[in-house]
Amino acid sequence: PAVLLQLLDWPVRPRCDALEVIITTGMALALKNIIRVRDELFGRGVHIYQIYGMTEAGAITGNTLLMNKLGSVGRLFHNTQLKVMEESTGLTLGAYQEGELCFKSQSLMLGYYNNPEATEMMFDSDGFFHTGDLGYYDDEGFIFITGRTKELIKWRSYQVAPVDVEAQLLALPEIKKAVVFGVPDEKEGELVTAAVILHPRYQATTAQSIEAAANLNLSNTRQIRGGVHFFQSFPNTTTGK
Q: Do 74 and 158 share a domain, yes or no?
């Protein structure tokens, strides 16, 4: 996904006349970005499928030519079970309810080598592996990734997923890239704070105007209160994450 997003900024569009299918994995690709990649780079004839998995379990879910819902990571593969767990209570949630994604499958690892403590932390008593990923499933069984439990911002008694705020920032025409995180605050716990990269033609934009525009479409619990900070670039790994 990171490479596809980087291609959007290239001055020359790739020529891929014979390309029919793109399969992505490694990080969730937002619906807005899937549509941009498809329409701006390759055209509507190209199908983009997301697959979800991890080293501990291999591929867990995926979209196919016959069953593809943009924005989702697909349905469960065979011999795989899912439960969505509410972190604070441990209760199993239903369709459209966001919680931690937990899986059980025949391809799941037995445990971490010589590390029983880490193994015990990641598995529950029913044998489900706790991924640390937040998400939900719809009434057709398609699964959507919404964030990470470890990335949640704790504002007062509320938990804010950075990806929700990032989506609103990226919807603004001025924003090229955005990263949202929590900044410690003695009274509020953590304040939602944003680091952004502006598109070149919007360099005169103020941080206050970006904050106000994003907050218009954010609920009170997700408001940016720690400010918006401008950067020329973000540090990335070799895979663009």
A: no
Rounded to two decimals, the pTM is 0.71
In which domain, by residue range, is 178 found?
152-230
Residues 30 and 11 placed together within one structural domain of the fold:
yes
Residue 161 and residue 133 share a domain: no
Q: Is residue 239 scored above 60 in pLDDT?
A: no
Instruction: Report pLDDT digits (tens) over 86-95.
Output: 988 989 999 9
Contacts of 142 (CB under 8 A, 6+ apart): 69, 72, 74, 75
pLDDT tens digits for 144-186? 998 888 788 989 878 888 988 999 999 999 999 999 999 988 8
Residues 81 and 104 sit within 8 Å (Cβ to Cβ): yes
Question: How confident is the model at residue 152, as a pLDDT?
Answer: 83
Task: Answer yes or no: do 132 and 42 share one domain.
Answer: yes
Query: Do 139 and 160 fall within a single domain?
Result: no
